[in-house]
Every structure is written in C-alpha cells, then in structure tokens.
Amino acid sequence: MSANARGRLGDWWSRRTRADVPVRNWTAISSGTPTRWVGFDETLAWVIAGLLSLGLVMVYSASIQLPDNPKYVNYTSSYFLMRHILSITLAIVAACATLAIPMRTWEKMAPWLFVAALLLLVMVLIPGIGRVVNRSRRWIPLGVMNFQPSELAKLAMAMYAANYMVRKMDVKESFTRAVLPMAIALGVIGLLLLAEPDMGAFIVIALIAVGILFLGGVNGKVFAIMIATLLGALLSIIWLSPIRWERIKAFWNPWDEANAMGKAYQLTHSLIAFGRGEVFGQGLGQSVEKLHYLPEAHTDFLLAIIGEELGLIGVLAVILAFFWMVRRIFIIGRQAIALDRVFSGLTTQGIGLWVGGQSFINMGVNLGVLPTKGLTLPLLSYGGSAIILTCVALAVVLRVDMENRQILRGGGSRER
C-alpha cells in the first residue's frame, strides 16, 4: 500500500472514529454502487417517540379536570387530548416530509426562512391578525390550531446563523464584518418578541444565535463582549419592567404570604406538587395540584404534574432522556463538521442548544431554580406549533445523520 493510500485511509478512519456513530446499511449494495438509504439513529428516534408518548399521557392526565373550571365549561374532558393527538399527527407528517429534504436545500432556503419568520413576527403584532391570550399577542389563528411565529423563529435562527457563519468563515475574527450584522439581526427579533411580549422565546433564540457564533469560531474577546452586552440588555429589560422585576422579587422569596398568593403562586404550587410526589409518586392520574390549584398544568408546568404523579423516578427519567438526546444531537453535529459539512453541523448543534436550553429553563422554572417564564417543555407540553416545529427540527437532525452515514459509506458529497 502506497504512502498516499495509507494517508487517505488514515484520514477516513480518523473521521470514522470521531463520528462515534455505527453505520447501518438498510439496502443491498450491488456492483459497488453506494447505497442511497443508509438509515439513521434509531435510538434517537425512539427517545423522541418515547417523550411524545409520555407527553400525550401526561397532557391528558393534567387536563382531564379542566372542564370543571368555569373558564373551560364548554370543553369536554378529552378536548385537550384530542387536540394534542392532532398536533402530534401533524408533527409526524411534517417530520417525515422534512426527512426527504436534503441539507443543501435547507442551506439555500435559510435566509428566506429567516425573512419569513421576521414577517410573521410582525404580522402577529397587527390587531385583527394576532390573537391575544393572557395579555400576550403571540398567536395567529389558523382555524384548527393557533400558530406561534416564535417557534418558527427558533428553527429559522438556527439555520440562518449556521448559514451566516459558513459565509463569514473567512472574516469570523472581525467584529464589524462577522458579529455586528448578526447582533443587529438578533436585536430586530428581540424587539419584535418583546413587543408581544415573549421574553422566554427571545432568551432561547439569543442562546441559539450566540451559541452558533461561538461554535463557529468567533474571536473569544469579541464573543465575551457580545455576551456581556446581551446580559446587560436582559438585566436592563428586567429592571425597567415593573412586572418582570416583581417576578424576580417573588422568586427570591416565594413563600412570603403576599408572593405565594401573587406572583409566586404557580411556583409555590409547583413545589408542593413535587413534594407530594416524593420518590415514587402518587400514581398516574392522582395529582391534586392539577385540580385548579396549579395554573397551566398541561403546558408550562407539566413537569410538576409528572413529579407529583410519577415521583422523583419519573422526573429523573425525563431529565436523563433530554440529557441523552441533546448529547446525541451534538455528537451528530460534531460528526457533520468533521466531514466538512459545516452548515449541517452548526444547524444541528443550534437545534441541540434550542432543545437543551429550553428544556433546562422549563425544568428550572418548575423546580424553583429559575424565575417563572412562559416556556413549554419540548415534546411533552401541550402546544400545537411548538410540537410541530420541534419535531421538524429533530427531523433535520435525523436528516443530517442520514447524510453523514451516506458519506461514510462512500456516497453523497460534502457541503464545503
């Protein structure tokens, strides 16, 4: 074997071992032709399916008593269950369609997807188009469901930031040419989201954008300046908003009588739910807090109901599932970058930041570690557009994994 051949083999093996993913061939290979279908990470797909299934059960458990509340008097006990089933069905269809779209197509569409997300964020603020729920204008009615543009903005930001870093790779050390344009784009999205208001979504989108800049290799000093500026802006927003500042003070002392009956009402009842669950839980369907004590039990505080009914064991199972899933997403992204597929790798890691960051914030809020924010638990909480867009994003991850495996089998081509 020649030195050049050994070098090529060593390079292939280095990438193969860095990938940390076994390749599985699903179709026969004949005449030396590379297979077009080499499968994807089945374990990741099963974990996603498991979380969706658990969410379906727990949403039904948390919402079955809601018709007893005068606010939901015209609803049936299975109303939220049926709508959640519809959302999951649409999410599966959308995810299957997404699996058929090559990453090269997503790379070309990324800027236009970002523009579409911006336009929808503007539209939702227009009276008569955007729907107001709990003093927030975040939804566009679509008949069978309400669409939340901020969910699309998360996926759009992951793809746009990845596409941006690929285009700016040669000038990533420059603040004015690499960081400043992205900071302006993030600022525009931030203003639109805070006008709804939806600070939780802005925090997640900022995490995606800043994380991709860091993973893309932006200069460390410039990155530190950007982080400091972003933190300063967030603290200023909290300080200048009396409502947000009251929430922070209530978070510091939730058991004060005024706070427990006011801004910390959800937090205190969430903690009571976890306390009642102890190690093994009260049993499925046996939650007391869902009986109109804990508001939004089927959305933002679903983890508290899991803790009450399934106990510490159930909560740890959910945390471990998310930890494993996010870690696996980052491995797939790292593999793509090792195969010179920078856009695919950064997009995948951006989705990992999205799912990991949002689940961390939601869990932190439920457990009283973070101030209360209106963020759902990905894949589990009730919410149509959130379920659909999260499944689409995870289908993009599976598509990246498929293309990685195709390259490792000798088919396909690198992006860059």
From TrEMBL:
**Pathway entry:** Cell wall biogenesis; peptidoglycan biosynthesis
Localization per record: Cell inner membrane; Cell membrane
Q: Please indicate if the UniProt record lists Lipid biosynthesis as a keyword.
A: no
Keywords attached to this Swiss-Prot or TrEMBL record, sorted alphabetically, are: Cell cycle, Cell division, Cell inner membrane, Cell membrane, Cell shape, Cell wall biogenesis/degradation, Glycosyltransferase, Membrane, Peptidoglycan synthesis, Transferase, Transmembrane, Transmembrane helix
Q: Which EC class heads this enzyme's classification?
A: transferase
Molecular function GO labels: lipid-linked peptidoglycan transporter activity; peptidoglycan glycosyltransferase activity
Primary subcellular site in the record, as a coarse category: membrane
Q: Report the EC code(s) recorded for this entry.
A: 2.4.99.28
Where does the source fall among the domains of life? Bacteria
GO biological process assignments: cell wall organization; FtsZ-dependent cytokinesis; peptidoglycan biosynthetic process; regulation of cell shape
List the GO cellular component terms.
cell division site; plasma membrane
According to its UniProt record, which reaction does this protein catalyse? [GlcNAc-(1->4)-Mur2Ac(oyl-L-Ala-gamma-D-Glu-L-Lys-D-Ala-D-Ala)](n)-di-trans,octa-cis-undecaprenyl diphosphate + beta-D-GlcNAc-(1->4)-Mur2Ac(oyl-L-Ala-gamma-D-Glu-L-Lys-D-Ala-D-Ala)-di-trans,octa-cis-undecaprenyl diphosphate = [GlcNAc-(1->4)-Mur2Ac(oyl-L-Ala-gamma-D-Glu-L-Lys-D-Ala-D-Ala)](n+1)-di-trans,octa-cis-undecaprenyl diphosphate + di-trans,octa-cis-undecaprenyl diphosphate + H(+)
Keyword Cell division in the entry? The reply is yes
What Pfam families does the record point to?
FTSW_RODA_SPOVE
Could you list the residue ranges that cross the membrane?
A: 44-64, 85-103, 109-129, 175-193, 199-216, 223-245, 301-326, 338-357, 377-400
Q: How does it sit in the membrane?
A: Multi-pass membrane protein
Main function? Peptidoglycan polymerase that is essential for cell division.
Give the family this protein belongs to, as stated in its UniProt record: Belongs to the SEDS family. FtsW subfamily.
Name of the protein in its database record: Probable peptidoglycan glycosyltransferase FtsW
Q: What organism does the record attribute this protein to? A: Sphaerotilus montanus
Q: Give the encoding gene's name.
A: ftsW
